[in-house]
Amino acid sequence: MRLEGWAYVLAVAHPSSRALRALHEVGHVLAAGHDPHGHLMAAVYDRNNGHCIDRAAVAMVASVQRLPLNQLNWCVGPGLDGGRASYR
Predict the structure, then answer these.
(1) Under 8 Å between Cβ of 52 and 15
(2) What residues does each domain of the chain span?
(3) Which parts of 30-85 fold into alpha helices (H)?
(4) Beta-carbon neighbour count of residue 55 at 10 Å?
(5) Above 80 in pLDDT, residue 72?
(6) 35, 5 in Cβ contact below 8 A?
(7) pTM value > 0.85
(8) Looking at the predicted structure, is the pLDDT value of residue 73 above 80?
(9) For residue 31, how many C-alpha atoms fall within 13 Å in the half-sphere facing its CB?
(10) Is 48 in a helix, a strand, or coil?
(11) 3-state class of 81 per DSSP?
(12) To 10 degrees, what angle do helices 55-65 and 17-29 make?
């Protein structure tokens, strides 16, 4: 599939809490709201939660930006996406 327009690439191997807060704010720029059950897009920052860009955050952005969710990447692991400890 050929995508026209912008490409969003956000990658941080081991994000600091400052980087995670910045990624949270980028989520808002891309029109994602707060997710009461989410990790990255939770309304209140918790350093023990949201260590990466989770599926819920990607799904919100994909929905608003009309991007194909099945062609995007997010992290998975304990407490994320069924608990599979790997990266998609």
Answers:
(1) yes
(2) 17-83
(3) 55-65
(4) 21
(5) yes
(6) no
(7) no
(8) yes
(9) 9
(10) coil
(11) helix
(12) 20
Contact 4, 24 (CB under 8 A): no
- Structural tokens at position 43: 């309304």
pLDDT for 16-36, tens place per residue? 778 888 888 998 998 899 988
Q: Residue 22: exposed, middle, or buried by beta-carbon count in 10 A (0-12, 13-18, 19+)? A: middle
pLDDT band at residue 50 using 50, 70 and 90 as cut-offs: low
Output the six-digit token pair for 47. 């350093």
What is the three-state SS of 24-42? HHHHHHCCCCCCCCCCCCC
Average pLDDT, the chain: 77
Q: State the average pLDDT over residues 26-54.
A: 83
